[in-house]
Amino acid sequence: MYTYETKIYIILLIAAILLAFILLLFILTINRHKKQWRELFLEKMAIQVKTQEQERKLLAANLHDDLSPLLVFANMQLDMLSMAECLSEAQDNLQMAKATLNKMITRVRQKNMQLWNPLLDRNSLSDSVTALVRELNNQGCIQIVFVNATENLSIPSIAHVHLYRIIQELSNNTIKHAGMALVHLVLRKTESQHLLSYRDDGKGFQLPAGNEFKGTGILSICNRVSLLKGELFMETEPGQGFYVRIRIPLSTFNL
Predict the structure, then answer these.
(1) How many Å apart are CA 24 and CA 17, to the nearest integer?
(2) Does pLDDT of 2 surpass 90?
(3) How does strand 231-236 pair with strand 193-200?
């Protein structure tokens, strides 16, 4: 038979072993969660960097395709001033050069608004999208019918920016590839999700195998949806228009 002191010693030893085991499990659990959070953080940062790089490429392409020809044309018109045979011809060339430069100034302002719209800091998402739709409709490139059923949902600024940029990129995609098109844009909120649907009646296109998109615009949209922990569904065929549905959990907006 064990003495009283021996029993106490055994109990304390077992308790110490159990405590050490629980402490070890706790440390291992903490380390595992730290590793998971670190991997999640690195993955999120990688997506953000990828999105930024894609948008820089898109901006560079837009500047090259949109502003470079105007710069070359303005330079040619200014060169023609020195070859003008009379004052009236020089004045005509000068007026043409001024008109080209004014067109460039307008394009630069439009590009600047695309890069950062100050209304994003002050308005709700619905107000920001309404302003964007009004601007695009006034330009006459496309016509957008916007239906807002979000009940003035309050969301974090970063989610606001991502959703605004997604809609902006979808609109740019329609303008570039669909021709003159009618667009139906709907923002809607359910008990668990924020829904965005976008449909145009443009030319459509063939989806790449495995949805391996090469264009920076669609890739940027996919990355932003991923950052919002959302789901993206896309449907299109040549001659059948373009449809996108995006589901974002409301938990994303409660961060």
Answers:
(1) 10
(2) no
(3) unpaired
Give CB contacts under 8 A, 24+ apart, made by 104-109.
Answer: 104/67, 104/70, 104/71, 104/74, 107/66, 107/67, 107/70, 108/67
Residue 21 belongs to what domain range? 1-59
The two structure tokens encoding residue 128 = 């920001």
Instruction: Mark whether 105 and 134 lie in a shared domain.
Output: no
Locate tokens 């005509």: which residue? 92
Query: Cα 101 to chain center, whole Å?
Result: 31
Which secondary-structure segment (H or E) carries 114?
helix 87-115
225/183 same-domain check: yes
pLDDT at 1 over 60: no
> Same domain for 216 and 187?
yes
Residue 211 has pLDDT above 70, yes or no: no
3-state secondary structure 40-97: HHHHHHHHHHHHHHHHHHHHHHHHHHHCHHHHHHHHHHHHHHCCCCCHHHHHHHHHHH
| Angle of helix 216-227 versus helix 157-177 axis, rounded to 10 | 160
Q: What is the pLDDT of residues 132-163, one digit of tens each?
A: 888 888 877 789 999 988 766 667 777 888 88
pLDDT (0 to 100) of residue 113: 58
What token pair was written down for 15?
A: 């308790």
Rounded-to-integer distance, Cα 224 and Cα 51, Å? 8
The CA-CA-CA angle for residues 177, 68, 214, to 5°, reads: 35
Task: Check residues 63 and 168 and name the one with the higher pLDDT.
Answer: 168
Average pLDDT of the residues in 119-131: 76
Q: Which residues contact 154 (CB under 8 A, 6 or more apart)?
A: 124, 253
Number of domains in the chain: 3
| Lowest-confidence pick of 38-52, 81-95, 172-186 | 38-52
